[in-house]
Amino acid sequence: MEITTAHTAEIDPAVLAAARRLCDDAFDGEFSDDDWDHALGGVHALVWEDGELVGHGSVVQRRLLAGGRALRTGYVEAVAVRADRRGRGHGAAVMTALEGVLRRAYEVGALGAAEDAVDFYAARGWVPWRGPTSVLGPDGPVRTADDDGGLFVLPVTAAPDLDGPIACDWRGGDVW
């Protein structure tokens, strides 16, 4: 297994296309164009095995508002491992690389966890946000109650109140 990290701008378009296909397959067709767009513009972790891309994830900068502060947040997106390689440490390798980026560049890490990945992230030290979630939409703040309980954070240099309200910046598709 070989792990590489690179900014979107440094990755060959063919590799980005392979990463997109990997995400499409891993999320069983539930990975939208907006989801892919959210994964671009930051640092990607790519896991290779025998010259084939078998794992991917990225971290992009966002601003989360919590405790009266705009936190410089590394938001983890598009973590995917090829189905025939799951359970072999590839997802952990992706997250180890991305967490290294988070610890060197951000106040806090955050991600929206799928139900089947909650235990994976919790075992790595990610903690659930217990307070209410919102988005700063084009028309002002909007509650995102459906996302309550699905946001996980990795405190780095900031220690936000996990029971307080949190809001994310607006983006198309899933805001969290």
Task: Tell me about this structure.
- The protein has helices at residues 13-26, 33-38, 90-105, 118-123, and strands at 2-7, 43-49, 52-66, 69-81, 108-112, 127-128, 133-137, 140-143, 151-155, 166-169.
- With 176 residues, it is of the alpha+beta class.
- Strands 1, 2, 3, 4, 5, 6, 7, 8, 9 and 10 form a ten-stranded mixed sheet that branches.
- A hairpin with a 2-residue loop joins β7 (133-137) and β8.
- The protein is globular and about 45 Å long.
- The mean pLDDT is 96.
Low-pLDDT stretches: none
Structural class, by secondary structure, is alpha+beta
How does the overall form come out from the CA principal axes? globular
Number of helical regions = 4
Give me the secondary-structure topology.
Elements lengths: L1 E6 L5 H14 L6 H6 L4 E7 L2 E15 L2 E13 L8 H16 L2 E5 L5 H6 L3 E2 L4 E5 L2 E4 L7 E5 L10 E4 L7
Parallel strand pairs: 4-5, 7-10
Antiparallel strand pairs: 1-2, 2-3, 3-4, 3-10, 5-9, 6-9, 7-8
